[in-house]
What we know:
With 101 residues, the chain is mostly beta strands. The protein has a single domain, classed as Immunoglobulins (Immunoglobulin-like, Sandwich), CATH 2.60.40.10. It has strands at 2-4, 17-26, 34-38, 44-46, 55-64, 67-71, 75-78. Strand 2 (17-26) and strand 3 form a beta hairpin. The radius of gyration is 14 Å and the shape is elongated. 19% of the residues are buried.
Amino acid sequence: xxxxxxxxxxxxxxxxxxxxxxxxxxxxxxxxxxxxxxxxxxxxxxxxxxxxxxxxxxxxxxxxxxxxxxxxxxxxxxxxxxxxxxxxxxxxxxxxxxxxx
Length: 101
C-alpha cells in the first residue's frame, strides 16, 4: 500500500520537525496497530506485509522534539485478493491539511 501526503509547512510546526508516522491497522482487529516512521524529506511510504483481501485504516501525523502533532483523519483501503502488489488506493487522500490548532 502506498501512502502519500504533503509536508507540514514550517510555520505550522511546534518545534523542530523530526519526521512523520504512518499508523495503520486491520479494521477487524483493533487490539493492535502498526507504526512506520518516515524522515522529514519523505512524503511517501510503501507499507508491506499486509494481508490480502483485508480492510485497513491509515492515519498520518508529524512529530517534533515536543511530541506527536495532530493526527489525520482515518482513511480506509482494502488490499487486493491473491498475491499482493503495492497499490495506491489512498494515494490522493493523505494530503492532510496541517494547520495551527
